[in-house]
Design brief:
The chain is built from 10 helices and 10 strands. It has an 8-stranded mixed β-sheet, sandwiched between helices. A two-stranded antiparallel ribbon has the order 9-10. Helix 8 crosses helix 9. The chain starts with 25 loop residues before the first helix and ends with a helix. 34% of the residues lie in helices and 16% in strands. It is globular, with a radius of gyration of 19 Å.
Length: 338
Amino acid sequence: MQTSVPSCNDTNVSEHFKPHPWLKSAHLQTLWSRISRYQPRAKFDIEILPTPDGDELDLAWLKGAKTQADAPIVVIFHGLEGSAKSAYADQLAITSVEQGADAVVMQFRTCSGRLNKTPVAYHSGAYEDPLHTLQHIADKYPNRPIHAAGFSLGANMLVNLLGRVENPPIQRAVAVCPPLDLASSSLRMNKGFSRVYRNHLLNSLKQKTYQKLELGIFSDVLDLNPRKLLTCKDFPQFDDCVTAPLHGFQGANEYYEKCSGKQYLRNITTPTLVIHAQDDPLMSQEVIPSSEDLSPQVHYEMHRHGGHVGFITQHEGAAKPWLPGRIMRWFGSEIKAR
């Protein structure tokens, strides 16, 4: 992603990310959790939350043994085909508890290890399930501040929620590597090594879609068969064939147009940090907001390195994730004051 927007060397970026000297490559940053064979450490408790349409969400909670009754809750929204087991979600949940908060990962439908009951799944602009989750938490814990962090798809979704919902129950928010222009991001993944990421994610989505086809879950709502599904070779094709019609859009173009988060940044009234990496292999320069796109409550950081939801730095000679600390420092004034 080549751009002249503010980088980590500019004075208006409040924190500078310095990559591990051996991990400056965008792909090493992006793939480090897999290369290092990261094993999730959080021992989550699962809460099953019914949805208004008769489905269920699996909320993965991590609570501290001595968390104060008025301590903040950090709500985490993972990326495409992620889960509570994703390294970034696991690391942020653990860091949240270490700093005195509780954490919960809202796992999107089909992402918790089981298929959901209804035809609909999730997409980059579907904020209804997250809003339902946030309202549930706010009702259950009325005296506790709620912070939210989204990653990749979950970050774009969070921007949609913050910019389209009046007075969301969130005190502070962070959006990490959001694909704020969905059309350009979907095409960027057709280039070079990024096709490896595309194929991995697309195969996972197609497998789940095939399973739901076999169970007859789509029978009344989607004109789809296994042969047609196999012809979907990239995200524009899959979104045109599955995502868009399944969620009420005329096609992929309408889905991308209505759900790209960049257009909603100017409406955000919640203090929000947006983090991008200039070398993100899944993004193009179209995702970068202009100063006119940003509301006064949005703080934007563009760093030279970091890859896609990577941001691996060095600490005492070892590779260490930088994002959990950065996110918690953004939330920190609320947490440390309690």
